[in-house]
Amino acid sequence: MAVEELVIKDIGEYAYPVYPESSGMPDWMAWADVSLFVLLLLVSAWLVWRPAGRGRWLWAVQLAAVGWFGFFRMGCLCPVGSVGNVAVSLFHPAVLLSVLAVVWFVLPLVAAFVMGRVFCAGLCPLGAVQDAAGWNARRVRSRVGPRLEKAFSMGTWLVLLYVLWCAFDSQSLPVCRYDPFVAFFRMAASPVMWVVSGCFLVFCLVVSRPFCRWLCPYGALLGLASRFAWRKRVIDPGTCLQCRKCEKCCPMNCIDRGRIDVSRCVLCGRCVRGCSRGSVADTADADAVLAHEPRVRGKKSRERG
């Protein structure tokens, strides 16, 4: 099956992405895409983990990512969509895989192994659009309980399995086809997809980043990689007062009883800014910090008794 066959299918006015190698785009544009992607990824990581600032300037990275990879490149160069391309090529070796698709797929995963989900923090156009639409969602997101949140988050794995099945069975790309944000990036979609996209943005007003939390197949892979990250964000039980301020201000609802689920944390830094005691630690030795938990809790229990 030729590569061109992957791009002629459509839904309404939507057509699948065409990579630079097959569209005649000059090499300098491909280099510009890769260079900007790497630069923004590094800047995002620096902003997230720098001692001061705590990622308050991530909005600038998000704006650049949305402007270039979203509207200018029409959402075609996206690690989320690259999952389908990589899967199709793995299941059907005759289908050529763009070098750019490999870059988009691999680089955020490597970054997640080292520093967590820094791609989600500032570089993902889909996350940036949801942040912009749901800036006020923090007031109501706590209504989703921890158990329900974990159950919904399994949707990312279900979508990933569906993407893999489609790649194996029909060599199709469902992520690109049903992405609720591409309609805005490309300003072209079927009436049904316009309605779906509009409803999704309205939903973002009351739930922060619903696509990232419950539907993103690439988020499932990033979450798995971030579990083994060299640097993580944890809550120091030795100084934590269990006030739950960090839990209430977390947009991803990934903090429960003084524990941060690093697989779902997008490193927005709101828990750091919300803790008045500085108990949220950025550390490369998370186990050493959490090792104090039994002793501290026992001491508090004896004091209360």
Automatic annotation (TrEMBL):
SUPFAM superfamilies according to UniProt: 4Fe-4S ferredoxins
Domain 4Fe-4S ferredoxin-type: 231-260, 261-285
Molecular-function GO term, any one: 4 iron, 4 sulfur cluster binding
Cellular-component GO terms for this entry: plasma membrane
Membrane-crossing segments per the record: 28-49, 56-74, 94-115, 151-168, 188-207
Any Pfam family the entry gives: Fer4_5
Full protein name: 4fe-4s binding domain
